[in-house]
Design brief:
Rossmann fold, about 40% helix, globular
Length: about 260
């Protein structure tokens, strides 16, 4: 049988600029690769992973020259967010898509929760996406752009021992829906909720017995890949002009049984 060649346009993203926060590693890096392959210019935000971000930039620019930039910022320095976004716009002259992926994740057992953990987890997972969206809104409205927030299935089904993280991601789901109302019709705002995609290096979910139990309760019975999340992001950015205010769970069906 003759193979039918995929004739899909290289992308609706050609010539557009995408900012991915926390874009140097893991799911963030997969999103950068996927959207770059779809034709976008990509800005990789990082806080401390400078060397990793530069390696990713070199890898992507081997495919397309002058198409990737790395910008360092501490997203909890809210007084510096305008300057950060200006640096993003200066690199490619525009900003069309913002993917809020940067996130802190660690346990906060009840009885041991401290204000510092609250400030960090709420700050990275909820407060920074809000203030970034607010600062980027005029440019995104001008470009008829979009925002994709990376949330978590534990936003609706809290993870034991991770109360503050679960609260923060639940807030990010609410923020997604609120921004869809505030910024429509010119800007679409959606979210992707990963399940078991990349196991953390430490903590409860790094334990093999916990991982086995999670996969036992996942209908597809396997861990996902970072590119599964990236594919959902690409869909929302490039192929979903009539979708806003929605959360897509990419979790192998786990959210239907927990």
């Amino acid at each position: 049988m003759k193979r039918i060649r995929n004739t899909r346009e290289p992308s609706a993203l050609a010539g557009k600029t995408v900012l991915v926060t926390g874009g140097a590693r893991r799911v963030g890096a997969a999103i950068c690769r996927r959207l770059h392959r779809a034709g976008a210019n990509v800005v990789i935000h990082y806080r401390t992973s400078g060397a990793t971000a530069l390696r990713l930039q070199r890898s992507l620019e081997a495919e397309r020259k002058q198409s990737v930039a790395c910008v360092q910022a501490d997203l909890l320095r809210f007084d510096a967010l305008d300057a950060f976004l200006q640096a993003v716009r200066n690199r490619f002259g525009r900003l069309d898509v913002m993917v809020n992926n940067a996130s802190s994740f660690y346990a906060t057992p009840l009885g041991k929760i401290r204000p510092r953990a609250w400030d960090d987890l709420i700050g990275t997972n909820l407060k920074a996406p809000l203030f970034l969206a607010q600062a980027a809104a005029p440019e995104l409205m001008r470009r008829r752009g979009c925002i994709v927030n990376i949330v978590d299935i534990h936003a609706e089904r809290p993870l034991e021992g991770h109360a503050v993280y679960s609260i923060a991601k639940a807030g990010l789901v609410a923020l997604t829906r609120a921004l869809a109302r505030e910024l429509g019709p010119r800007v679409r705002v959606n979210a992707v909720a990963p399940g078991a995609v990349a196991w953390p290096d430490a903590g409860l979910l790094a334990q093999p017995e916990i991982q086995r139990e999670i996969l036992r309760r996942t209908p597809l019975a396997r861990i996902g890949r970072p590119d599964d999340i990236a594919a959902a992001v690409e869909f929302l950015v490039a192929d979903a002009p009539y979708i806003t205010g929605q959360v897509i769970a990419v979790d192998g069906g786990r959210s239907v049984v927990i």
